[in-house]
């Protein structure tokens, strides 16, 4: 997020990341600083909140005005269905920033994004494994096809222009109760005939996200756990571009 108002001001960029990889991200960014006068430091005095406006897609025109207690209050750049991102000082009064709001559990947030098929963090997007286009980042303002060279740019650009993407991250749901231990991350997903259809990435409760071959999305799917077959169903998110859902 850009915190400076104009190019005349000192640039200040706030980067949101998975807290489990905070140290490695700092080291990675410092590798590319290359004698520039850039300060890279964590912000432990800030808290991040997701503001979700219920089940319907959010309306950016109804964004509450940002009072002094909020460092940033802006529409979530990934998808309208994800509402807004709020960054405030720790201990800020959220009911003053967004009157009438209710504080939910963090699992409510994860359930919402799994239902919408929005990946986040290293469980959903394993570093060195997840590919940007298969992870639907082109739908979520996560890839620029005009900025020039970057690591992986040639493969990403070629795949985009060829238009052939055989696997994508999709929301999945389990119709029957899950085992107490849940579904292991990376579990193989099979078709009814036993063909490999993809892999389960992560989830919570009866919802999750999986990398699936698009050719098998509409087929009955299952995961083998011990001697049991756990059925699951994949869906295409409504917020995706219409052409991508075909």
Automatic annotation (TrEMBL):
GO terms for biological process: iron-sulfur cluster assembly. Keywords: Mitochondrion, Transferase, Transit peptide. The gene is Iba57. Its main location: mitochondrion. It comes from Rhadina sibilatrix. Residues 166-242 form the CAF17 C-terminal domain. It is found in: Mitochondrion. GO terms for cellular component: mitochondrial matrix. One of its GO terms (molecular function) is transferase activity. This is CAF17 transferase. It comes from the Eukaryota. The lineage of its organism: Eukaryota, Metazoa, Chordata, Craniata, Vertebrata.
